Amino acid sequence: MTPIRYTRDYSRRKFLSDAARGLLATGVLMPLSKAIADKGDVSAAYPDELLSIEAYTRGRLKAGDVIDASNVEVVKDLLEPVRYQQILKQGRRLKLRATTTDVMRLSPWEYIEATLKNAGKAGFDAKGNVVNMADGKPWIGGNPFPNPTNGIELFAAQTLSWGRHDASFYAFKEYDVAPSGLVEFQYDGGWAEMSPVARVVMEPRPYWPDHVNKLRFQSVFFLSPQSFRGTSFLNVWDYDHSTFPLLYGYVPEFRRIRQFPTDQRFEPLVPGSALYLSDAWAAGDPLHTWGNYRIVGRGPFLAGVSGNWNPDKPNWQRGTHGGPKGHNFWDTEVELIPEAIIVEAEPQKFPRAPVSRKRVWFDARNQVVVGMVTYDRKGQPYRSFDGAYTLYEAGDKTVKDGAHPYWSWAHVTASDIQTGRITRLEQVQALEARYKSGANDPEIYNKYLTQGALMKLGAV
């Protein structure tokens, strides 16, 4: 039997000690960034007890086991309160898998390479915008703050590049589940996004000169049900992190583009949905429309960051379980994340915001968001947002992103805790044959990210 060199108490004391001294030095045995730069692997930064769910739980759970109401107390401290309650009371289940230590499997390959290449080059200018400190221009690519020292750096990286590709298109299916457990609404649609700056794959790079003052173009449109077919929305983000995006929408009944109030980001785009624009990637609003970013905790966590792709299923679709009718939650595989960083923030430029703050969990290995809970104006838990990521790699069924396997989100669960409504989204392979998920296609802009594109989508 191998003796335990570092116990759970050792890691916990390390996290608490750093917090007491106001430090955010990721890693326990050595700096996480050094471990990644040396070998692209996080193993050297953490003791075995943070790299194995079996070691962490002292053998009570292991990879391949399922967390349910009968054993959730064993890992209660590894879950945000909403998932814990859903497992305990609504039949949610999570299947355990081994911890991923190879960071090249946790984000797009080129994004990671750019992060390592450009480490230490980013900062904030006088207006609070992320810039390349060498010339004061917009950021040049990858994660600008791979060694975060505070909450705003974590959120800045997340807001700058949601999907971590220069451009992405996601064919998706949405299921809106009523408190009764019935799927009350179902939508098929597409979500597109493209970055004119900080580009690491698409030419020209790092900037598209025609739009160097823009941060992002993003659109969403619906193909079904028939009554919503052609309904679409376009967000155009300024690079100024304090400026609200322009929001345009096309409603087929009126056959025209209209501009919508852009600060109404806490409302569903379609009936029945529990998902808001503000929720996107837990950073759906410009960085400085929120404030008082602060780190409130660190420690291990359970989340779906690999293994959540079903290449053998028609259109990659997933099974569900839980709730009164078995439709509330996705079948999900989760793993022990050695270190998550918990950040809170408060809305600053939303006088009618129904939320008082949000709490977001970031995976320290790659700073990807792995969970979010928002709180209402009375400080009570209001809504939650959790998802699963995966590398789309499975032998001859691997989805390629250039020279490497495609990395992206697999599914999302958005829960309105107070009403009991749940929205589930899944990324599928294709819709109607022509709308296919993928990354870095130069035609994404013309197809989905202009007002003219919205008009064409409305005519499909």
Automatic annotation (TrEMBL):
It comes from the Bacteria. InterPro entries: DUF1329. This is DUF1329 domain-containing protein. Gene3D superfamilies: Lipoprotein localisation LolA/LolB/LppX.
